[in-house]
Structures are given as C-alpha cells and as structure tokens.
C-alpha cells in the first residue's frame, strides 16, 4: 500500500517551532534539518536564558516563542560513569523538565508536542529485538534506571493527556546516538566518543594499550545523529498517536567488535585491556524498528563504519 505522506515543506510553512535542547548534540542537527525543510520560525532556547527546571522559565519561553510545535530534546545525559555518579540529578532534572514543559505546552494550547525518550527506559532483560509492547515488562538496567524511568514518565503523561484532553503528543525511543558534535569528555561521554578519544590520544602518546570498561560482551545499537534528526522530523510531520515508537539503525554490535572497529579506523595498533571490575550495563540492546517505517516511513541510511569515520574526522578537526 502506498501512503500519501504530507509534503514536508508545506507542513513546516508558517509554523513556529521551539526546540528545547536545540543547541545541543542532537538538537543542533534537528534545527539544521528543520531549516533544510523550509522552517523559518525556529526558536532555540539556551539554558542560560531559560532554565527548564524552573516553571517561570518554561512559561516565559512559551510566551516568547509562541510555538505551534515543541520538540523537547533538553535533558541531562551521559554515559554509565556519569549516571552512576549523579543518579539523583539524572532523575530529578529530566523528570522535572519533561513534566513541566509538557504540562505548560498543554496549558498554552501548543498544537503538537514531540517527546524524545531513551532506549534506557526498556527493562534490563527485554527480549531482543526490543518491541514497544515490552516497555513495561520489567525494571531498567540499574546503572541508568533513574534516567530511563524519568524519561519514561513522559510517555505516561503523553498518553494521559491525550486520553483526557485530546492533546496531540508523540513519544519516540531512539537507540544510542553518536556522530559529529558528540560529547568527548571522558567523565560524561558515551562509549563511542570515549573510545575514539582514548584511541587517538594513546596513538599520539605512543602508548601500547587502552583500558575499556567492562568485558566487551554487551551489545548495542547505534544510530547516527543525522538519521535520528530525520526520524524525529518525519514523526512530527506524519505521526499523531501516543503509542511509543522505536527509532534505530537495525544493526546490533558487541562493544568488543565496536572497540576493534574504532582502533582500526583511528589507526591505533595497541592492545585493548578490559576492566571487568567496571559495569557492563544492559546485556543487549537492539530495537525492532518496523513501526517507525510503517507509521512514518523512517529507515536509517548511515552505515556504522561510515558514521564512525565522519565522527573521528570531526573530532580530529574540532577537539
């Protein structure tokens, strides 16, 4: 069956769009993609001007932006180390931001709210590939459960407000993101930027090994940031229901395989030493992305190796 999707440029014509977190890693690509789709009224609030943990700042933002659509990407994010060190902040900041931004968007009669969650919301032992209907079948992996649960509450809110008020909101569950502009700070970074930085610095120092957390056995699915931005905007244009939808690349890879791929691409020829005293995190992560393709026509198109090459190239130019 051929679906007659709405024209992208027509959809964004004369619409006022606010992108929270629009100056961040994912947000900057979403804003760039919006402009390429013809959106001319895009408001990007900066945290120094609008601290979204505070109600007054949210109300002021909505008054200043007068948005027809809000794409909510703002949040406190980080890898396993950051989540273990700051669980309370990861829980509170993400929960208070999402709940209040969502509620105030409803109060302000925003036409559509786009919420972006996290694969960390899934239960620790979700059957692979993760299907949306498995989202409530257990507790998330402990090292990032506070973050995952805080993000998951946005889905509950979305469904409740649609049921009671008819408020149009959607909720997307992306795989682990990576790409140019990622956070390469080793205290806060996720696995890909951390491995890239470690390999490049070890190579430059002439070191014969790098140390990587865990055993290397867990698997992950990685989605290139430009693909994620496209998925979010396709969903905004074409999807109008509160059922959660996975967005991913359709490729599962072990951390060990990933590490060897990054050492090859960076030219680091030393050894990889695994620190098994550090946590592995969730055993496997791999999303069933059939709904995204069926409901709004999204399919990722950047192969992992190509995305890694672009990310490494960006890091070498911009560190």
Fold and architecture overview:
The chain is of the alpha/beta class. Helix content is 44%, strand content 14%. The protein has helices spanning 8-12, 25-36, 55-65, 80-85, 87-107, 145-165, 191-205, 225-238, 255-266, 290-296, 304-318; strands at 16-20, 41-43, 69-72, 112-116, 169-174, 176-178, 209-213, 219-220, 222-224, 245-247, 253-254, 271-275. The strands form 4 sheets. Strands 2-1-3-4-5-10 form a 6-stranded parallel sheet, sandwiched between helices. The protein has a two-stranded parallel ribbon with strand order 6-9. It is globular and about 60 Å long. The mean pLDDT is 96.
Strand content: 5-15%
Outline: globular
Give helix and strand order, one letter per element, not per position.
HEHEHEHHEHEEHEEEHEEHEHH
Second-tier CATH architecture of the domain at 12-182 and 222-249 and 283-301: 3-Layer(aba) Sandwich
Report the mean per-residue pLDDT as an integer. Answer: 96
Per CATH, what is the topology of the domain at 12-182 and 222-249 and 283-301?
A: Rossmann fold
Tally of separate helices: 11
Q: Indicate the low-confidence ranges by residue numbers.
A: none
Please describe the biggest sheet, giving its number of strands, its sense, and whether it closes into a barrel. Answer: 6 strands, parallel
The rounded Rg comes to: 19 Å
Q: What share of residues is helical?
A: 40-55%
What is the terminal-to-terminal distance? 48 Å
Please identify the top-level CATH class of the domain at 12-182 and 222-249 and 283-301. Alpha Beta
The CATH superfamily of the domain at 12-182 and 222-249 and 283-301 is NAD(P)-binding Rossmann-like Domain
- How many distinct beta strands? 12
Tell me the structural class.
alpha/beta
Largest sheet strand order = 2-1-3-4-5-10
């Amino acid at each position: 069956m051929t679906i007659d999707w709405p024209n992208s440029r027509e959809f964004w014509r004369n619409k006022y769009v606010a992108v929270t977190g629009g100056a961040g890693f994912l947000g900057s690509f979403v804003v760039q993609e919006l402009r390429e789709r013809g959106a001319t009224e895009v408001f990007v609030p900066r945290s120094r001007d609008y601290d979204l943990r505070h109600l007054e700042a949210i109300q002021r933002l909505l008054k200043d932006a007068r948005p027809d659509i809000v794409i909510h990407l703002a949040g406190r994010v980080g890898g396993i180390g950051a989540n273990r060190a700051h669980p309370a902040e990861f829980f509170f900041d993400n929960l208070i931001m999402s709940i209040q931004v969502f509620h105030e968007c409803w109060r302000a009669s925003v036409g559509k709210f786009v919420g972006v969650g996290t694969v960390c919301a899934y239960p620790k032992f979700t059957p692979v590939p993760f299907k949306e209907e498995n989202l409530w079948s257990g507790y998330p992996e402990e090292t990032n459960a506070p973050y995952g649960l805080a993000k998951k509450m946005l889905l509950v809110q979305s469904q409740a407000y649609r049921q009671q008020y008819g408020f149009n909101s959607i909720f997307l569950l992306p795989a682990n993101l990576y790409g140019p502009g990622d956070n390469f700070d080793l205290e806060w970074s996720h696995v890909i930027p951390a491995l890239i930085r470690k390999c490049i610095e070890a190579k430059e120092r002439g070191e014969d090994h790098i140390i990587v957390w865990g055993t290397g056995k867990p698997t992950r699915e990685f989605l290139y940031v430009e693909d994620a931005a496209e998925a979010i905007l396709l969903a905004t244009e074409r999807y109008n229901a509160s059922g959660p939808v996975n967005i991913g690349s359709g490729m599962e890879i072990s951390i060990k395989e990933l590490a060897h791929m990054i050492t090859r691409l960076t030219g680091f020829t030393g050894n990889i030493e695994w620190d098994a005293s550090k946590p592995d995190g969730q055993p496997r992560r791999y999303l069933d992305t059939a709904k995204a393709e069926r409901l709004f026509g999204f399919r990722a198109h950047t192969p992992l190796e190509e995305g890694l090459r672009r990310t490494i190239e960006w890091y070498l130019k911009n560190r």
